[in-house]
Fold each of these.
Amino acid sequence: MQSIMQKRNVMVLPTLMLAAGCAISPSDSSDTANAIGNVPESVVAMAAPDQDVSTARLRPEDGCYWYEHNGPVEVTLLPLRTANGNPICAARPT
């Protein structure tokens, strides 16, 4: 029985070390346009009232504004929407 426990403990350490290497580090972006809470007043005016615009940011992947929703279990990034439910996105250059 002791041999099985030792083998299990030996396998736990490499598994944890491997999983730690898979963590995604936050990008070090100095671009203030993408900073959290740095949204134009026009975007704040369009946003539905039940969203936390203080955590909103423009995501370059899709050109839309997203905010952090603090749920009962986790914090989720959700698209910032108008009162009609439309996502708020930045105008794309033509």
Amino acid sequence: MALQFELEVSDMDLNEKVNAVETRDDFIEFIGALRRDLKSCPDDWQNPTLDGFLEALAAWVQDMDGYYQNNSLPVTLLPNWKNVAEMMLAAKHYE
């Protein structure tokens, strides 16, 4: 399946897309949007390298229970496609 690339994706678009993720296909579309955002707005990324992104992803996943609790959301024990998309979006900025 080829991903179609848009010219630019804003953080708002990414937040809307992450909230719309329900299926594997939605998740694939979200990954494409995340990649387009990195290519078009690399300065907006706290973690633009794979190494930094993966480090932030691991740190956020380790701390994600606090995120869900602080936002009055149920803590996820078995992640679904939306939760994985949330993790990836968080790694864009997480320190």
